[in-house]
């Protein structure tokens, strides 16, 4: 049981910070303990507490946002804004106080995704975002996460982030936040006559919906680029292994 736990820990460390994990395992790390390149095993740090508060605020947002009244929506948006601001704060605190930990490295990206997914789920629950958009966003991350795990059979180095992927994230976050605030509302373009494409039909829509559409397009391109690069790495590694055997 202990061996399985250690292997799981090693795998997780390799996913979130492969270079740091390899250096610690080989005993070649030169950076002080608690820095980004040499995370500690500490749990109860101020940075981790801030990250946990982001989780609590995110849950509070979802509960308040689903109540469908103006006062609750205002409180929900306040929770969401504070939670989003802690994304920057916990990382800064960890680096400046030299308390970067493995738990923080694992929790931080998970809480980021949880914050995004909760905002999307809240909009779906209130009928302000089509269900297919949420399915796309969730499915994309699950697909890329699974593909990244498969790619680790061939290389420990994660794929380089592509600019179109960064643009997709920025567009989606901008669109979702604007949809949460529900301003400004613009006329529909009237291109299609279906209810599941708000803004492209004749119905008025929050401007952020068009940012979401642009983000979905960029995200689809990013998925293609990541998969193409991943398949190239797989092909190269398999060729190298074949030549060595």
What does this structure look like?
- The protein has 245 residues and is mostly helical.
- The protein has two domains: 1-127, no CATH class; 128-245, no CATH class.
- Helices cover 70% and strands 2% of the residues.
- The protein contains eight helices and two strands; from the N terminus they run H-H-H-H-H-H-H-E-E-H.
- A two-stranded antiparallel sheet has the order 1-2.
- It is flat.
- The two termini are 34 Å apart.
- The mean pLDDT is 85.
Structural class: mainly alpha
Whole-number mean pLDDT: 85
Shape: flat
> Unreliable segments (pLDDT under 50, ≥5 consecutive)?
none
Describe the main β-sheet briefly.
2 strands, antiparallel
Strand order within the widest beta sheet: 1-2
Distance between the termini: 34 Å
Overall radius of gyration:
21 Å
Helical content (DSSP H or I, runs of 4+) = over 70%
SSE topology string:
HHHHHHHEEH
Strand content: under 5%
Number of domains: 2
- Number of DSSP E strands: 2
Number of helices, where a helix is a run of at least 4 consecutive DSSP H or I residues: 8
């Amino acid at each position: 049981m202990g061996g399985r736990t250690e292997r799981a820990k090693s795998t997780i460390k390799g996913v979130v910070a492969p270079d740091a994990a390899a250096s610690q395992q080989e005993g070649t790390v030169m950076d002080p303990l608690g820095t980004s390149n040499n995370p500690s095993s500490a749990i109860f740090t101020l940075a981790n507490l801030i990250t946990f508060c982001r989780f609590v605020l995110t849950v509070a947002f979802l509960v308040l946002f689903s109540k469908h009244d103006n006062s609750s929506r205002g409180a929900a948006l306040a929770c969401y804004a504070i939670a989003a601001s802690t994304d920057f704060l916990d990382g800064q605190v960890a680096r400046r106080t030299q308390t970067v930990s493995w738990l923080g490295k694992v929790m931080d990206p998970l809480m980021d995704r949880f914050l995004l997914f909760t905002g999307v789920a809240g909009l779906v629950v209130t009928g302000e975002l089509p269900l297919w958009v949420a399915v796309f966003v969730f499915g994309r991350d699950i697909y890329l996460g699974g593909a990244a795990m498969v790619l680790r059979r061939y290389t420990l180095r994660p794929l380089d982030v592509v600019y179109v992927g960064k643009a997709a994230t920025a567009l989606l976050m901008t669109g979702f936040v604007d949809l949460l605030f529900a301003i400004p509302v613009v006329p529909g373009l009237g291109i299609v006559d279906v209810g599941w494409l708000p803004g492209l039909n004749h119905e008025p829509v929050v401007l952020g919906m068009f940012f979401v559409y642009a983000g979905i397009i960029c995200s689809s391109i990013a998925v293609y680029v990541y998969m193409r690069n991943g398949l190239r790495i797989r092909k190269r590694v398999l060729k190298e292994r074949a030549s060595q055997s």
